[in-house]
Amino acid sequence: MAEATPHLLFVCVENSCRSQMAEGFARALGKTQVRAFSAGSRPSGQVNPRAVQFMRERQIDLTLQNSKGLDDLPAGTHWDYIVTMGCGDACPSLPALHRIDWDLPDPKHLSDAEFRAVRDRIEALVAELIGGAVGSPDSAKEPGR
Fold first, then answer.
1. Model's pTM, two decimal places?
2. Per-residue b/e over 1-20, b at no fewer than 16 CB within 10 Å?
3. Which of 4, 16, 42, 26 is nearest to 100 (CA)?
4. pLDDT at 144 over 90
5. Among 20, 51, 56, 67, fewest CB within 10 Å belongs to which?
6. What is the mean pLDDT of the chain?
């Protein structure tokens, strides 16, 4: 049975761009309605400075977040949603009520405009996910599909 506050986990490879932005949007949009976390299958150890810069344009501060691995997640957490973003075979096999894969390019080497486009897509997907997560448990669908 899901806890009263849905727990969301966003996972990409380095936990420096996509999953960090998703966590930031989930915290900002979900406020106290969700608990958001992110991790990487091979964390880089730092949040990408461009992710920090472009999220600041949305008034979201990523400087308080850290790049972390799956082992750094809170022990014993029951995940309601695990969203993977391009980690392929290295995606976690953690148990979750719902597993979703968002096919998003790693914006690390993209132009500023392309980076912002990935950020904006993540924002829309996170908003849709939160809408499903805080609604009836069966109403959540894989965003973007």
1. 0.89
2. eeeeebbbbbbbbbbbbbbb
3. 26
4. no
5. 56
6. 89
User: Would you call 95 exposed, middle or buried from its count of C-beta atoms within 10 A (0-12, 13-18, 19+)?
Assistant: exposed
Which domain, by its residues, includes 100? 7-133
In the chain, how many domains are there?
1
* pLDDT at res. 2: 45
Let me know if residue 138 belongs to a domain. no
Q: What is the CATH number of the domain that holds 28?
A: 3.40.50.2300
Q: How far apart are CA 12 and CA 16, in angstroms?
A: 8
Residues belonging to the active site: 12, 87, 91
Locate 42 and state its tokens.
């091979």
Amino acid of residue 19: S
Residue 114 included in any domain: yes
Q: Which amino acid is at 117?
A: A
CA atoms of 55 and 51, how far apart (whole Å): 6
In this predicted model, what pLDDT tens digit does every residue of 57-92 receive, in sequence order? 999 999 999 999 999 999 989 999 999 998 776 676
Amino acid at 119: R
